[in-house]
Design goal:
This protein has 392 residues and is of the alpha/beta class. Helix content is 50%, strand content 10%. A 6-stranded parallel β-sheet has the order 1-9-6-4-2-3, sandwiched between helices. Strands 5-8-7 form a 3-stranded mixed β-sheet.
Length: 392
């Protein structure tokens, strides 16, 4: 067996209503000055209200940073970290989606260490200390609450990652109640995102390992079995719980067996066109899956029975094709937009997208099949309107 390393956060609390226990978790760190990192949408929806009131009732000073935006720009991260330092913050709490959680990880690190954000992009460069960190997701998609990764948009609209075990939180608190109000289109996009994490972890060319494999399989079972219900009946607590747990398990999987071309091609769409990350993934997912099929056939066939039990007796090629089609069916049935044109991408944008995607070498190296500029251009081209164009 190939040697491997597996890392995850030390403490996980999963329970409907779990966010009510945040004051007790905060108290365990003897913290007095808390920074809550969130965004205006989450706070406006009332998802942080109970936690804010409970922390205030416990006599704690809470500073709220609610200026997080999707695909957080570096200046937002740096502004939040500066505020944390100015307020003497001794614990960072985040309630929100992946962008808020990613921001909070870096705030906790930058507020305690002497590092500058520009100096820690990459793998393993953040080696200093951080403040205590508690992450509470309000979407079932990114799995950021259990990953050592933060994604930042630079001033040149390039997405860069900070990858370090220092970014793993002390507590991941999963409260399905916080996801009950998610609109169907957000549920679909974030759910597909989580499935992409599981699939890319399972097929990752580097660091694929038995623990991530099992987590990815369990994640796909939970997600594929519940996403339709979660989209059609958003108040169904069991479906929401399965989605949140599946998202977390997929996060654990890809934190240790990294994602690949789907994310590499999705990042430029999010950075340039401000498309939510989950939707960006969904828009290029099927093109990348079909591109990878000749090289990932056996692995796709292994996953196929999770979506369709009848696939267990099929020949490898047929099972793999069935898996890809089953995933496409979920995207259709959950109303995921089918083309890049629907989010504003034009034919003249394809070259820039392909050029930017090729900069994501940290991710592309994990793909089961090598991706060239021409390959990326072709995948974007078909995703635009179903027509294949030739790169200049």
């Amino acid at each position: 067996m190939t040697p491997f390393t597996f890392q995850t956060c030390p403490n996980i609390l999963f329970e409907p209503g779990a966010s009510a226990k945040l004051p007790d978790l905060v108290a365990s760190f003897h913290a007095q000055r808390i920074m809550l990192v969130t965004d205006k949408g989450v706070r406006g929806a009332g998802l942080t209200g109970a936690a804010e009131a409970a922390l205030a009732s416990a006599g704690l000073k809470v500073t709220v940073f609610e200026d997080v935006v999707a695909d957080p720009p570096s200046h937002v991260v740096e502004a939040a970290a500066a505020l944390a330092r100015a307020e003497g913050t001794d614990l960072v709490l985040s309630i929100g989606g992946g962008s808020a959680l990613d921001t909070a990880k870096l705030v906790a690190y930058l507020a305690r260490s002497d590092d500058q954000l520009d100096s820690i992009y990459g793998v393993g460069l953040a080696q200093g200390q951080r403040l205590p960190l508690i992450l509470v997701p309000t979407t079932a998609g990114t799995g950021s609450e259990v990953t050592p990764i933060s994604i930042v948009t630079t001033p040149t609209t390039e997405k860069k990652g900070v990858v370090s075990p220092r970014l793993l939180p002390d507590w991941a608190v999963l409260d399905p109640d916080l996801t009950l109000g998610l609109p169907a289109h957000v549920t679909a996009a974030t759910g597909i995102d989580a499935m992409v994490h599981a699939i890319e972890a399972y097929t990752s060319r580097h660091k694929k390992n038995p623990i991530s494999d099992q987590l990815a399989r369990q994640a796909l079972a939970l997600l594929s079995g519940s996403i339709r219900t979660a989209c059609s009946d958003g108040r169904n607590l069991e479906a929401r719980s399965n989605m949140l747990l599946g998202s977390m398990l997929a996060g654990m999987a890809f934190a240790n067996a990294p994602v690949a071309a789907v994310h590499a091609l999705a990042y430029p769409i999010g950075a340039v066109f401000h498309v939510p990350h989950g939707l960006s993934n969904a828009l290029v997912l099927m093109g990348v899956m079909r591109f990878n099929l000749p090289h990932a056939q056996a692995l796709y066939a292994e996953l196929a029975p999770i979506f369709d039990p009848a696939a267990v007796n099929l020949p490898t090629g047929e099972a793999a094709a069935r898996f890809v089609e089953s995933l496409a069916a979920i995207c259709r049935e959950c109303g995921v937009p089918a083309s890049l044109a629907e989010v504003g991408v034009r034919e003249e944008d394809l070259a820039r997208l392909a050029t930017d995607a090729m900069k994501q070498t940290r991710l592309l190296v994990n793909n089961p099949r090598e991706v060239t500029y021409q390959d990326a251009f072709a995948i974007y081209s078909e995703a635009l309107d179903g027509k294949l164009r030739t790169a200049a």
